[in-house]
Amino acid sequence: MTTYVEQSGLKVAAELHDFISEKALPGTGVAAEAFWSGLAELIHGKGPRNRELLSIREDIQAKIDSWHRDHRGQSHDADAYTAFLREIGYLVPEGEPFEIETENVDPEIASTPGPQLVVPVMNARYALNAVNARWGSLYDALYGTDAMGDLPAGREYDAARGARVIDWAKGFLDEAAPLFSGSHRDVVGYRIVQGGLEAEILNDQDFRAADATRKATDEAPSGEAPIATHSIALADPTQLLGWQGDADAPTAILLQNNGLKIELRIDRNHQIGSSDKAGVADVVLESAVSTIMDCEDSVAAVDAEDKVLAYSNWLGLMRGDLEESVTKNGKTFTRAMNPDRVYNAPQGDVTVKGRSLMLVRNVGHLMTNPAVLDRDGNEAGEGLLDAMITTLCAMHDLQREGGNSVHGSVYVVKPKMHGPDEVAFASEIFDHVEDALGLPRHTVKLGIMDEERRTSANLMECIRAAKHRVAFINTGFLDRTGDEMHTSMEAGPMLRKGAMKSTLWIKSYEDRNVDIGLACGLKGTAQIGKGMWAMPDLMADMLDQKIGHLEQGATCAWVPSPTAATLHATHYHKLNVLDRQAELAAGGARGKLGDLLTIPVHNGENWSDAEITAELENNAQGILGYVVRWVDQGVGCSKVPDIHDVGLMEDRATCRISSQHMANWLHHGVVTRDQVEQVLQRMAIKVDEQNANDPEYIPMAPGYDTIAYKAAQELVYEGTAQPSGYTEPVLHKRRLELKAVS
Ligand SMILES: CC(=O)SCCNC(=O)CCNC(=O)[C@H](O)C(C)(C)COP(=O)(O)OP(=O)(O)OC[C@H]1O[C@@H](n2cnc3c(N)ncnc32)[C@H](O)[C@@H]1OP(=O)(O)O
Ligand SMILES: O=CC(=O)O
Ligand SMILES: [Mg+2]
Fold first, then answer.
1. Model confidence over 656-706: pLDDT tens digits?
2. Where in the cell is it found (predicted)?
3. Cα–Cα distance, 70 to 61 (Å, whole number)
4. Three-state SS at 354
């Protein structure tokens, strides 16, 4: 039973009340009375509009459903469909061209293309790891993953594999920070001479003849024995930003390329450095330039207890004092936030950020939460709570030097908004929050997730609706795929999930997002981001493919882990995104609205029984593997093996896709309910096996009546009725049920 405290007409769960009064408010200068009355006004003042926007969603969806039912059996008339979407207000008129006017944006967002990490904020261990993932070891990322094509064979250090890592990394340095001539592979020592980097390379006679431009350090008179070494500068000497240690024997060298930093760590006593010609012990890359601390799809937060954990961790990150005791490989240590890094430089010391720039993802407009009840006893809008409380917590950062934002901004990512009115509403919420907390107007910057079809279709107007706040737009293609299916649920059976990647709508969606972002002046002020790499263990594939996001013009793209951030960072050294954006802008818009509105229903081909079963099994396994941890253990993001045993990142958005897909095929009779139930049961056995080593695991078979199993059934069987196809209502309800019985 939740104990509530009466406050300004609200009922606030006691643990949330204590958190706000004792932890979040002190030090902000905001009086308790001002906070609670501001929250009450927000909930009572904006709650009705919030509910109205949700009912507009339902109303529009009902009209689209009817249109498809009325046109069933006829060939699709794209013009009539588009006219209908305009008539019902799904498509709104586009206004005059404009440019965003967001101010005080930190360079990590405005002008430094690089990886963006996402992390469940309720997991302090991971969140701290994420904030420290601003810097990551390239050697470790290459050695410990399949990035070079294979995995390490055992736990002992494999020197041959180590040599391949070093060779890869030095080849990378030759591209990102080339020497005037020769290769980093041949360097036997680095030093700083007159503020410039000099790389020592062993002489050879041919080299001397071939390269008259090099600088010899101990040049021997002509005719005498060959000199031992000669020094070579960087091809672009301005790439050197600083160093640590003596100029003659630096311990670290800081380089920069395309706005991203690279640190060579030099230590001839280190296990790796001692066997390296140049004493290089590691190549450390600036990796997660920014990180989204996620209160949304990667967490399971259903009540005050959960929300307080999420808010406490965010507060600790904003105060800079979050710590967690971590036990790893038999050792226990305290994980805290890394300090900034200081280097020598010709013009004095250079300090660079040691931590990733943090954004916080609030929840969208849909859910409510029992942590606070309004004056009528209804649960408060969770998005309203997040807005007020995450901003309050971020005020601790605004009041200290050397924290997260050096420009006095708070970065909030707002997901799952449908169209410009909902974006305008989000901006109004933050107007209210700023007034209540005494913050200057537009302190809070907004990241707009372009992940619902009505937002993609009206993206320019969505950006205009928050033009003083927009700090990013991002193609959340996972939710977007779920919404694609739900919006056109009545149009017919959808393509197989894997085929969605090569559809016309998705290409147009990705292109248009960049086109519109550039046209609205985001370049140099705000991020244009792309989606998650959802296969955390397939790093070779990521290295191969994710550069595509930069080619598409994205200044950041999501990665699931620090290691992925380090590897993805190498892409930003290979391709200068700001140049690419200039090229794309000059080429004109590519994505077409007509293509965006094509519906990915299957084209009449006959799927074999085996294909249908494979599709069902894949989806069922993903749902069940995710739901068992969400409902039974409160884990909102998991790595779940698919039917090929590839670990996939599953969160609420991927669960939305799988459940909507199954619901769609069931709805259109591609499969029967019996077939679905058999597959769910078969996959439940498999998921039970996969979790056999987890002592806290609650098996689903042979009863198939656990709360988690029922959640999976409901997500599928009631899938067509879920608002926008979201999984939150079912997951929250079932998790609360589980919490109540345990
Ligand atoms: C559609 C969307 O909305 S996408 C956005 C939501 N998704 C996410 O946020 C994904 C975030 N990623 C994750 O949660 C995890 O990487 C998972 C669940 C995918 C995999 O987690 P695990 O199975 O525990 O990963 P694995 O065992 O390979 O690695 C664990 C180590 O990596 C670290 N790690 C993994 N993911 C992250 C992360 N996102 N941030 C920081 N550290 C991380 C952990 O701290 C841990 O290291 P430690 O022992 O030193 O603490
Ligand atoms: O939030 C991201 C997505 O892909 O959905
Ligand atoms: Mg999403």
1. 999 999 999 999 999 999 999 999 999 999 999 999 999 999 999 999 999
2. Cytoplasm
3. 14
4. coil
In a domain, residue 603? The reply is no
Boundary residue ending a domain (267, 286, 305): 286
Is 134 considered catalytic here? no
Which residue is closest in CA terms to ligand 2's atom 3?
476
The answer to whether residue 601 is domain-embedded is: no
Around ligand 1, the residues with Cβ closer than 6 Å are 117-120, 125-126, 129-130, 133, 294, 297-298, 326, 328, 476, 478, 532, 536, 560-562, 637-639, 649, 651, 653
Tens of pLDDT, residue by residue over 362-388, are 999 999 999 999 999 999 999 999 999
Instruction: Give residue-wise pLDDT tens across range 4-42.
Output: 999 999 999 999 999 999 999 999 999 999 999 999 999
- The CATH code of the domain that includes 688 is 1.20.1220.12
The end-to-end CA distance of the chain, in Å, is 13
pTM, full prediction: 0.97
Q: Are residues 710 and 737 in the same domain?
A: yes
Nearest CA to ligand 2 atom 5: 479
The residue segments making up the domain with residue 643 are 609-741
Query: Would you list which residues are annotated within the binding site for glyoxylate?
Result: 361, 451, 476-479
Last residue of a domain, one of 596, 620, 650: 596
- Best residue among 297, 362, 549 to mutate for probing ligand 2's pocket (most ligand atoms within 8 Å of CB) is 297
Residue 266: closest CA among 244, 241, 238, 285: 244
Q: How far apart, in whole angstroms, are the C-alpha atoms of residue 593 and residue 596?
A: 5
Q: Does residue 375 fall inside a structural domain?
A: yes
Which ipTM value was assigned to this complex? 0.98
Answer yes or no: 688 catalytic.
Answer: no
In a domain, 604, yes or no: no
C-beta of 477 in contact with ligand 2 (< 6 A): yes
Q: How many degrees, rounded to 5, is the angle at CA 729 between CA 725 and CA 735?
A: 135
- Say if residue 571 is in the same domain as residue 618: no
